[in-house]
Amino acid sequence: MRRDTLPGGATPAASATAHAPSGAHVLADLSGIAAEKLSNCAALETLLRDAAERAGACVLFSHFHGFGEGQGVTGVVLLAESHITIHTWPECGFAAADIFMCGSAQPELALALIKKALQPGAAHIHTSRRGPP
């Protein structure tokens, strides 16, 4: 990749123009999830990266950490548009997701994919608009 391009081929100048400093910040508390869906580090990383792409975001980097066999996972997907994070508690069937995207990215599409994959029994969603007044 050339140094003057971002993943996906966008140039830094084009990216700055395409990404306004305002966006949507979605917090999702997802409960009633099967424990095996909340302890697989690689599967959760793939899910969140796919969710970012579905939302029209540009993935820059991701890092996920599993806390051991059957234990939870914490992970972050860094985006040109901001981030997606997840923290899981398999023993409680609970996941907390945080999706912040600016510009034309659509965090609602990312959340829809995450919910489809994890199949929570209940979801409490809070969305805030972010940016200058």
From TrEMBL:
Modified residues (Pyruvic acid (Ser)): 82
Entry keyword annotation includes Thylakoid: no
GO BP term, pick one: spermidine biosynthetic process
Enzyme class: lyase
Domain of life: Bacteria
Site feature location: Cleavage (non-hydrolytic): 81-82
One of the Pfam families matching this protein, by short name: AdoMet_dc
Subunit structure: Heterotetramer of two alpha and two beta chains arranged as a dimer of alpha/beta heterodimers.
UniProt protein name: S-adenosylmethionine decarboxylase proenzyme
